[in-house]
Amino acid sequence: MKNITKEWFKDWSNEYDRTLGKVKRHHKLLELAVNSSSVKNGDKVLDIGCGTGLLSLKFLKKADCSITGIDNSKDMLSIFKDKIKKLSLEDKIICELGDAISLNLKKNSFDIVASTVTLHHVKDKYPTIKKIHDILKHEGRFVLGDINMDTTGKLTDTKRLLRILDYLKKELVLALNEGGIDTFKRMYDNGKKHILNDGEYCISFEQWKQLCKKAGFRKITVKPLPDFKWFKVLVAVK
Questions:
Q1: DSSP for 148-202?
Q2: In a domain? residue 66
Q3: Any domain includes 196
Q4: What is the mean pLDDT of residues 73-85?
């Protein structure tokens, strides 16, 4: 599944910014994540699944921080690195090839670890959440922005299917209205992956909260995205 997901993002990389990057809901989710993080000047931020840099650049717009971005797509990172060069941000952002599963970073080294619409690709989520807890400094914040959708259960369960479709119908209408047919095609393809758990393993935010508690986070809050309440942002404090 990991290789399937990597190939899918490789194929998507050249049009990511002009499809999902054009959907207002996505930008509002990124902005809510940044605003909820309490980022301040001098903070060290890790962006897991940084992709083409949409979240990282919003962090830098909010505060004079330093960012390490990791992603397992060379193609996505190539686009992000071009942006960094054009914007002369080489002293503010470091990009590395890697993924959430194989995080190998120093303990107590980041003020903020942020990830948006990325960690649902990880099938066994707890080990990653535990690693995130370990690499955060005391009082560090884990910020997660994602879909509040439980796709667990048997693929043949009709109740599960209806639960997923209830979310997808709203998302597909937004994609068509705001991004046009190209965005709709991408999100339709993505929706099928959610239904079949083909590289997509979404869980509810109540399930995310329980994983954070198990990992040792002591304060956890969840905020829904105004007008798009099937998307939420979680902040967990170490």
A1: -----S-TT-HHHHHHHHHHHHHHHHHHHHHHHHHHHHHHHHHHHHHHHTSS---
A2: yes
A3: no
A4: 89
